[in-house]
Amino acid sequence: MEVARDEIREQVRALCQRFPGEYWREKDRARDYPGEFVAALTEGGWLACLVPEAYGGSGLGLAEATAILEEIHASGCNGAAAHAQIYTMGTILRHGSDPQKSKYLPEIAAGRLRLQAFGVTEPESGSDTLSLATRAVRDGDGYVINGAKVWTSRAEHSDLMLLLARTTPREEAKSRTEGLSVFLVDMAAAHGNGLEIRPIRTMINHATCAVYLDDLRVPAANLIGEEGQGFRYILDGMNAERILIAAECVGDGRWFTERAVTYAGERQVFGRPIGQNQGVQFPIARAYAEMRAAALMVEKAATLFDAGQPCGEEANMAKLLASEAAWAAGDTCMQTFGGYGFAEEMDVERKFRETRLYRTAPVSTNMILAYIAEHVLGLPRSY
Ligand SMILES: Cc1cc2nc3c(=O)[nH]c(=O)nc-3n(C[C@H](O)[C@H](O)[C@H](O)COP(=O)(O)OP(=O)(O)OC[C@H]3O[C@@H](n4cnc5c(N)ncnc54)[C@H](O)[C@@H]3O)c2cc1C
Fold this sequence. Notes:
Blueprint: H1 5-16, H2 21-30, H3 35-43, H4 62-74, H5 83-87, H6 90-95, H7 98-110, E1 115-119, E2 135-139, E3 142-153, E4 160-166, E5 180-186, H8 187-190, E6 195-199, E7 208-219, E8 223-224, H9 230-266, E9 268-269, E10 272-273, H10 278-306, H11 312-337, H12 348-356, H13 365-376
Parallel strand pairs: 1-4
Antiparallel strand pairs: 2-3, 3-7, 4-5, 5-8, 6-7, 9-10
The protein binds flavin-adenine dinucleotide.
């Protein structure tokens, strides 16, 4: 479907106006899931943007999805409560069987099924995904899964979870990257039957959890693609995730810059606006330039992704540059606001905390630099 990106931005902005700072502050204080905001995005069809029209979605490209998420963040809202509903289904779309696609994608597109939990990270293995220890063993018409995941965001707000587990012991696998498999876990069926979820309270309102798997039985029909090829499938989805999260960071960068400019123009100290001082205006100007440069890399990466071309380099660089630009813009905004930056009612400190996440998740800055060094520049592998 062809929809002009300006129109998308305008409509998303209008939706976001219904969720002002006060709404987010209350949710943040209570660490409460922003269910009303997610429902509004679902009703508007925004979370089904990447599902093909044949399965009931709007069949838009990643470039349009970046416009949606950027605008959410530029409006002062937070897409983290629902962003994974947009892209996690890509694993089913690209690697699922026809029956799996027909069963799940229309329900996901309609918002009746939420597939927005992604269980990869484990307490021990961390960034070293290939060392993950969660084990799935074939048993009759199913698999029995044991292990633990950490930082599984939205696990309590998902009907389905995409889970990465080892099906072949590492020493028996044909190659370093084989032996892991992807499963679709029905959360309602699993809850209390081998699956336990424990929320983790964090410095941001992110609904993230530890997930424990104790003899959890998953039907073989819920294996996505071929057994042992799961790592490859997950990597495929990671480029989309990185580009979309980079777009959120660009949105944050815009929000911080706009706030800083307005405040610097209004706040009078020593008888003149603080923004008249170069020491105040230059950091804002620099943050703006860095955000615009990151936005270009997001655009480039999304364009390559939509054209079906390799985009690992650009997706990683977009995530790196945008998360750094958002962080610099956030710090500059805090500094511009002086003491008032610390006041909850300004929303600056909340956004500042929220945007910090993206230097660590879904992949930390060092791992991106290691990717660029090794895979783009040809330097020796460092780990
Ligand atoms: C709020 C939140 C939500 C999250 N949501 C999800 C989710 O939904 N699903 C999911 O699977 N995961 C999720 N994550 C996990 C996130 O992806 C990881 O935290 C991140 O990938 C880093 O892994 P780690 O925390 O284990 O850090 P570690 O791997 O322990 O690394 C710690 C630090 O050391 C650095 N480091 C490690 N090894 C090297 C090396 N070889 N070279 C250079 N530096 C290195 C890292 O870059 C990092 O800075 C979330 C995390 C948070 C905090």
